[in-house]
Input
Amino acid sequence: MISATVASPTLRFLEDLWDPKVAATLDEPELLRYRSNLLGSDLRITNFAGGNTSSKIGETDPLTGEPVQVLWVKGSGGDLGSIKRPGFATLFLDKLRALEHLYKGVDTEDEMAEMYPLCTFGKNPVAASIDTPLHGFLPFPHVDHLHPDWGIALAASGNGKAKMEEFNREFGHKLVWLAWQRPGFELGMMMKRAVAANPDCDGIVLGGHGLFTWGETQRECYLNTITIIDQLGQFIARHGSARGAMRFGGEAVPARADRKELATRVAPFLRGRVSEKKRMIASFSDAADVLQFVNSADAETLAFLGTSCPDHFIRTKIRPMFVPWAANEDLDALKTRIEESLKKYREQYGEYYRAFATPDSPALRDPNPTVVLIPGMGMFSFGKSKTEARIAGEFYTNAIHVMEGASLLGDGDIAGTLPQCGEGFDPAEFKVHSNYVALPAHEAFKIEYWALEEAKIRRQPPEKELSRRIVVVVGGGSGIGREVAIKACRLGAHVVVADRDAAACCRVAEELRAFAPDEFAVCSGVDITQRPEIHKAFDATVSAFGGVDILVNTAALFPSSPDGVITDAQWAKTLEVNVTANYLLADEAQEIFAEQGLDGSIVLTSSANAVVPKHGSEAYDVSKAALSHLIRELSILLAPNVRVNGISPATVVRGSTMFPRDRVMASLTKYTIPFDESLSDDELRSLLADFYAERSLTHQAIDPADCAEAILFLAGPKARCTTGHLIPVDGGLKEAFLR
Output
């Protein structure tokens, strides 16, 4: 057999990132990891969690001590860009290849996949992917299977095989074409036969799917892969230059200048509708390539055809939802179009399921779209998290590039059967528009509802208590608010940390990113006495995540002065911050809640002082009494979809910005508690907190974390039947007992 030829390293679009100094320090499994990470670092080369890499590596059998060949291959669900050594499945190569003798045809694909664990080398718990035989039965030491946009564009072209041969002549390659076949053992056998019949080939184009390349060394494999992908880009770019600037039939709807503002306004409405079954987080893109597609004359037709590459439609469903919004229509008209389009989409998805489901198929999944295209505006994508939503959008952007590339490769009417259609398939099932060939619906169903895909879904960890929820924490820069933000994020929420001190809330957001995905936490400065600033903070929340599910406010003002006299201005400011601002927050939030149509929750922070009158704190006490009643009023006003509750803590000294050093020292002096002025702020606060604790029944100092527990209990699903209620968090302060 002739080894794969190293193609020219001259690159136009991609960059050779291989560092020989780094590579020289790595063993073979680490070189595989290194190669994979380099390939996965560029979305033009492969999608997130898409594609596979493998190496056949000499190992020692731990039982016999004999040398054996082990297939190291990316594990099921792994991501090439971030995979580490433990993320690879390892299989005895001879045992995997011996499965060929047990194979009885495509109807036994699932049974073959159940045999892969029996081929495992070592105590490796990583599940082998369905692509394992595609790597194992190729004779090359190192193999890459990727889904580059340029490669799929060729694979999804109605004249793809002819264009592949043209590409081979132009760039001196010997790529081989295989018609569409679902990934699995059958495709592995087809690839084995293709290489045997073409021993000098240097790659395989899988019709409607992707690209296989290989090499005798890790370096050679990497270089062959990026060179062929780059040259495919050059090939398509040459065709594009010949066609001029027009794409997808030309612009039908112009991009709106205020599209970002409009997207923010419609996002909660759209999020609420696609969250009919499960709450979703949103991502929005109005990137140039997205707008060029959604605004085009061919967009609706191409969108309905659906995607081609299996990795695409697993994330984006069989197709996106296209909303036909005309250039002269307003936002109310858009909402009507969304409702109409959703009704049609759900009906079509149900028909798709019923048409192809068998008695042993997994149950019908959520019939709502994960990608929504709106002419003049852009693309919304949805997922269980911001990351999943963004990735779904990235996948459909890849699909746009594929459709563009396929259309550029078109050179007239296509005669005969499409090259994606192999033996046993009905040519009429392969739909084509502008040279782009979509996957047949029944083939899409076989992958989307494949038992192996269902098993992959079931292997995912259970969702957390606040997963899929968006929490705005006002006063999140310190004290109770900071603890609420931390706990909410640990419970799976997407968190907006808002505070008058913009620097403080951004520091807390950074704290959250230390243990949660970066995209789960954002910060926003806000003055809650100013409605426009509140509106702006909620707009930032909607822009980040698509809506709001929970609003928490812990911000408050305790007026003080050196002589103990509170001025009229201080009195007014206290009521403005502690009462009116809470009303403004709730009023702004309820507009988003109403647009979403989803259940929401508000938790406000009152105080034990609301029922315990004291000398010297009249303004604060009265404001908190008013707030307690505001909570009850709001619970009635916003019912039934929004629950409004509160907590009534006793004095929380630790971590509170309401207890600056001078106030703490004044309180210690007032209560004749001895202290040394050299003590730190936290040490002084602890002295005061311990004093207050002794006045309670439990003798426990109230910590911000105690309040956060109560707040998130009220905010979350465990208290779904509780509204208009205030939970005391006061250590058992008998003076605050209601009477």
Residues 1-8 have pLDDT under 50 and may be disordered. Residues 468 and 733 are 37 Å apart (CA to CA). DSSP finds 25 helices and 20 strands in the chain.
